[in-house]
Design brief:
This protein is mainly beta. The protein folds into four domains: 126 residues, Immunoglobulin-like (Sandwich); 96 residues, Sandwich (Immunoglobulin-like), CATH 2.60.40; 77 residues, Immunoglobulin-like (Sandwich); 81 residues, Immunoglobulins (Immunoglobulin-like). It is built from one helix and 30 strands. Strands 5-4-7-8 form a four-stranded antiparallel sheet, with no helix packed on it. Strand 25 and strand 26 form a beta hairpin. The radius of gyration is 32 Å and the shape is elongated. It starts with 5 loop residues before the first helix and ends with a strand. The N terminus is likely disordered.
Length: 398
Amino acid sequence: MFRLARRQLGRCAALAGVIVPLLGGCSAGMIRVNPPDDDETATVDVAITAAATGLPLTVDATVVAGGEQGTLAAGDDAVRVTDVPFGNSDPPTQPLTVNAEGFVTHFETLELNKSSVTTVQVELEEADPDTTGSLSGAVTDLSTGDPVANAMVDFRPDIHGSPEGVQAATNKAGEYTVRGVFTGATIAQVTAAGYLTAGRQVVVIQDSSGGNPDAVDFELVPTSAKATVAGRVIDLITRDPIEGATVTAGGVGPTTTPANGRFQLQDVPVGDQPIQVMADKYDTLNDTVAVAPGMPDLTIELAPLEDQPPPGPATIRGTVTINNNPDNAGAVVKAISTVSGQVIDTAVTNAAGEYGLFVPPGRYRVEVSFQGVTVSRTVTLEGFGRVLTGVDFQITAP
């Protein structure tokens, strides 16, 4: 076992990574650590202590650097991890994870030294077994079942303003462990180069109650994967299927729907992909769909085009009838966002009581005022160039 005393690291700081003390102080002898023979890998020495005491741990610790794993025996000062790949970044970096029972998992991105051994000092914080729990599992490739090394797993409480999460990286076998995760509903997210991000909700049980007995595993979808996008195109109002609609997704297509409105596109690239649906006498739909293997069928609703275009740019139209008044002119109509409370557009009715408001898709309170009398109603304007008509009011003049 290669041992590196913490006190010696401080005393010989000027020689760190080139000359390392052998067991005793600087005067007791030296051992020269030469750079690794393999230009493609690095050697990492990790010194680990308890943050509360500054002393070596009384339990074993596991270190994962760039997928390579090493074990620090209880009482030892440091552990050496070899064959750590440099990777493709400049300067070269790799994730470093340190785990020990009773301590919060330590995670950092480590910059590797190409000319000598990389050294790092890690202080582990104690975990409260009554308020935190531990989880472990594996990350694999959905297509092949192979382990995914260097995947980063992030667990954080599913609450507003939640504290920082606990992260860990997988080893070459795709395995991970995280300790010190706050108990309760937790969002887990996994990221890895060449894969789509995956996530799920997990309920974390405190270690003092036995912790989480089951592994929390993840299957990642390679970004090179393809999937089938299928579904049905229907009329937004009547809910009837639309024949003759053309569907394109992720650059695949178009395909044309038959009488039942069904469509299917094969070999669509996974991830967020653009989708376009067009049909005669309907608004064109342009949207984004999350493509993934095994995704459910889509229901695509197209809005019929207006028989007559609105008089001028308007997305909300209607009439106001003013009782006890010679005509219906002069009522002030406002579209007020229910989210921000701001007035988005204002119009004044003509003699026929007609008005038009131009607003983006969203939810609005349409408010009508006339000589101090006000009435209102809440409406939702769908997207994709639709026009909401028939938003009518009656108001009685004083």
